[in-house]
Amino acid sequence: MIFDLSKTNSIANTFIAELRDEQIQKDSMRFRKNLERLGAFFAYEISKTLTYQEVQTQTPLGTAKSTVLEDQPVLATILRAGLPMQHGLLSVFDRADCAFITAYRKTKKSGDFIIQMEHISAPDLEGKVVILADPMLATGLSMVLCAKELINRYQIRKLHIIAAIASTEGVKHVRANLPKADLWVGAIDDEMTSKSYIVPGLGDAGDLAYGIKS
Question: How far is Cα of residue 6 from the mean position of the Cα atoms in its chain?
């Protein structure tokens, strides 16, 4: 399943518009905050797909029937750009465990690049619902590499992938290689540059959030 938030009018579209705006981007704190807000929005939407159980809640005046999550998902992110979105997810799933993955582009002399993954720090994911966040889904190579590493290590019950902006090519790559995963995106853009940056996209999310890499 692919869920594209831009297909319906909601406050999420305002967050995405501000993330793209080159003037608003100059405020790195607001950029991070908008990614965080979008993460919380995705969390709320994904929460509708999870499993709940009925409980009895004691109030000062009586007993009320409520439904609560049976099990918290595990929140995974690709460092460093995914951290603000994970904070947003964690503000909703506030009892969730977290996983962190280090992955980056390694450019060859030819100008081509490969995705290098160095480290995974994760709790036990056996039988868990996992939400994997990264703001930009360009080629989809890093997302698929990281997701497959988790899948190879653990019997994950369900995988949700979220991205603020995706490319058409990245969506196709994820769907072809992770057909059982649900993909949640803020918007899908059709083009990419020769260096695989999404157009119009929003630029380098990690640099905008945390400063330009040396």
Answer: 16
**What is the separation of C-alpha 99 from the centre of its chain, rounded to a whole number of angstroms?**
12
Q: Which CATH architecture has domain 2-50+68-210?
A: 3-Layer(aba) Sandwich (3.40)
Domain boundaries, the chain: 2-50+68-210
CB 193 within 8 A of CB 199: yes
Give the count of beta carbons closer than 10 Å to the beta carbon of residue 139.
Answer: 19
Q: Quick: pLDDT tens for 130-168.
A: 999 999 999 998 899 889 989 989 999 999 999 999 999
CB atoms within 10 A of CB 75: 26
- Could you tell me the sign of the dihedral formed by the alpha carbons of 165, 168, 172, 173, in that order? negative
This prediction has a pTM of 0.90
Between vectors from CA 92 to CA 87 and to CA 93, what angle results, nearest 5°?
Answer: 90
